[in-house]
Specification:
heterodimer, A: about 350 residues, mainly alpha, 2 domains, 3-stranded antiparallel β-sheet, two-stranded antiparallel ribbon, 16 helices, 5 strands, B: about 250 residues, alpha/beta, Rossmann fold, 6-stranded mixed β-sheet, 4-stranded antiparallel β-sheet, 10 helices, about 25% strand
Chain lengths: ~350, ~250
Amino acid sequence: MVDAEVKRDRIIIRHKGKKWDWMLEPRYWRNAFLWTACLLIFPILCYFFSPILLNTLITANLYSAIAIPLALMTVGTGRLNFGPNFFVGVGGYTAAILSIAYGWGPLKTLAPAILISLISALLFSPLVILARGLYYVLLTLLLPLVFLEVTFIYSDLFKGDVGLAGIKLLMDLGDVKINFLMIAYLSIFLVLLYLLVVNKILKSRYGLIMATINDDEEVAHGIGVNINAVKILAFVFSAGMIGVAGWFYAHYFGTFAGITYLPLTFMVKILLVIFIGGRAQVFGCVAGGYFVAFLEMILIATLGNIQPVVFPIILFILLFALPEGLFGIYRKRRYREYLPTLHVRR
Amino acid sequence: MSEILKVRNITKSFGGLTAVNKISFDISSGETVGLIGPNGAGKTTLVNLLCGSYYADSGEIEMDGKFITRMKPYQRCRMGLSRTYQIPRPFPELTALMSVVTSALCGKKRANRGFDDAAAEATHYLEFVGLFSKRNILARDLTFFELRMLELARALATTPKLLFVDEVMAGLNPGEANRAVHLIARAKEEFGLTIFWIEHVMAVLMEAAERIIAIHFGEKLAEGTPEEIANNDKVIEAYLGSGWRKTNSAEQSA
């Protein structure tokens, strides 16, 4: 006989002399289950009331799925990468070219997309050791732009001007609305997975080591942290995660064009996600992703052509007004909650 | 006593300026060695060379029978070299406890070292320097003296054999300086350290050090017991200038 007892801060379940404690987070704004439930209910509501929103929802989730690994990369390397969309391009093009050339479905192209992203990141990883400060920003900013040029030069392979078409779709269940709903859930699953993994890393001892690199590299080196290994690992690992977002884009739309993801306009949106969420705050990235995607939708509907100009302006204002983002305000008051804490068993 | 560190003809130049020029010395285990010199003599450069922040142009550094001249700072740290900085360099965004936990985690490779083990050990070092009550305060909010102590705790948590103390007295008032000196002496006894102490204030080294090395313009001027150094003509000249002796002897004869 299962016996459940609800207490103020925990649910106790007893069964045949065994006991399970399930701690409840009393502060609802930090309750992971509540936020997950919100994320999961949102697509269903959209499905019934306004299916158009599903597309915005998927965009928001993909923005978050790029921003969360970018946050990990920022902390782990101690530098802000200004060209995360390079890896979106690498993952997307790998998936697109393989799918068109060999007729591979999304499941088959996933592993090559991750692999090529990892290899490309490993190729460029000396950047995190050699370049620092403004030079790192400039070099990473150039990567996607150079890649964009390459897609134009080798037009017969990349189709830089029109984009690759005819990629196998992520899923085809017959009904367009249900398709969108399922893709929305898949994107939410991706975001939740990334949140779980990155949060676990940042809360662990490796997160602490990354935090020291973020604060002062030389001192971290002096107290025994192998900074080069940590920086390269963080860079390559998060690049692989960003590459998956590119794979998702390619199979979601069935087309992939470098001109959509590689230019500065896309990069500005990702940076806006990061800055709204707070620099290197994983949970802020989700809030930032939804904010930017919905703001973009509203701006396109109301402002039309001048919309690309508005985003950089908002970014500039935020950089001055909220250097640590929305989460930064919260963090200033409760810094202890965002550091690894000791768990004492009662 | 066996020699823990051997330095042979170590040289480092920045462009045309030779900051450290062919300096050689030994440090035996269990010793407290002082390093003195006027401003710009190359004291901190020497420590940076020994800890690996800079690589030497020529010369050799040997520690426990291994040549560490080309080793990276983290490898030297794991071999048992640790240092404090002249101007405290804390991790501003981390709490005091977490800064020390990192060095306990990374300092020396130990089997089955978990996060909680490191935290327990870090707590001990924080308590040792008297910062236990400030363990959950961000390092950027600590006072100057507390930062110094945090640096010391962070250096001790890597379990060094040889500790470089870089001007621990700078910027402290006499009471705090006294506490710092006593703490370093206690650390030496309790953790069995060898200490290489760079200091401007001669009075401190006179008491604490067993042997003093004096350098000037990157070259070794003298080496010996504190009394020998205090009466060494070259050292007096480097510190006070050659004019001092003339005026002094003129006063005596008059």
